[in-house]
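User: Some background: our group keeps a shared notebook of sequences we're curious about, and every so often someone picks one and asks for a predicted structure to add to the entry. Today it's my turn. The entry only has the sequence so far, pasted here. Could you supply the structure so I can complete it?
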Amino acid sequence: RRHKLYREELNLTSPAALLPLRPEASWLQFHLGITRDGLYPRSSPAVNRLLRDMQDSTTISADYSQDEKALLGACDCSQIVKPSGVHLKLVLRFQDFGKAMFKPMRQKREEETPEDFFYFVDFQRHNAEIAAFHLDRILDFRRVPPTVGRLINVTKEILEVTKNEVLQSVFFISPASNVCFFAKCPYMCKTEYAVCGNPHLLEGSLSAFLPSLNLAPRLSIPNPWIRSYSFDGKEEWEVNPLYCDTVREIYPYSNGNRLLNIVDMAIFDFLIGNMDRHHYEMFTKFGDDGFLLHLDNARGFGRHSHDETSILAPLSQCCIIKRTTLLRLQLLAEPEYRLSDVMRESLLQDRLAPILTEPHLLALDRRLQLILRAVRKCIDTYGEAKVVANDTTQPQAPASARVKLST
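Assistant: Of course. Here's the predicted structure to add to the notebook entry:
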């Protein structure tokens, strides 16, 4: 009722006029900059403008993500590990058809994930999404969509702009006079799992949306090193040290870059401590050798005191790594380019800084040494020629390899 009266008071009942798409819009320039080498070039002014726009642009619409909507309607819920309000996320829309995924703060930076938590019931952390983007860029992977931190006014930028009556209905005022809201889903969607402003402002991460699936189709593919999403039982790779031999016999892991890209992804996930990589996505346009998108990193950076070496199984079992990846890791192990120092400096650019606590930054250095040690062990066993794949002489992708967008 309050929402309806508010809109009537501001004469917002009539639909807004359609706006033309400006070619110089940062959202569009980001999409046009996607190539078979990554989501954006190494030095991309469009990405820097996009990051600023996500921090400053006015929110014109808010809605549940497709995941939450699926939970409310017809869906194969067996494919959803843990539908709950604990993992609430929203889609925020901006001018120039901009769209970003908002994940609210669930866990304070200094809190570690409890030891007894399974990886599939862990919190989703907004600061992990932000830090993952910066780390991915430092590693020169460029496979995580641009992500920034932002303080959102949940009343003005969500409640008063959403047209979703279900989302409107889950807002309430807490006993502390803070504005809160929660998700609608089959279970665990109660006020005790709500997120609350202070009284209206709420920290969160904003991740830029990729081009529409109609314009740039993507495939979602099960990770060969997927974990068991149950409280007992293990997957074959966890009990068979020769599991990679089986994977190598299966197309497309039998040739090309796919297996090397899986190892890249495992290295990235090990550094952030993410055990929840059950699928990966690829743009179909770039074929089987295209890069893997590193999406949904909110379960990273949960425990700085523990290094989950099983995440490195693709590297330790297959004993193969790209030369460019190895050279970058070796550089970031040098004292003058120490990974923790580079990350600390990069994260200071975000308005919600500090993004990571000091123990999490130092954990990156420790885990980097474990990666290099695993590579050295492979080289000692099989020789450098078999372990280090030379990808430094690959030609630049032709202009025709860019994602084509039509209006």
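Suggested note for the entry: Confidence is low (pLDDT under 50) at residues 68-85, 394-407. The chain has two domains: 60-208, 218-389.
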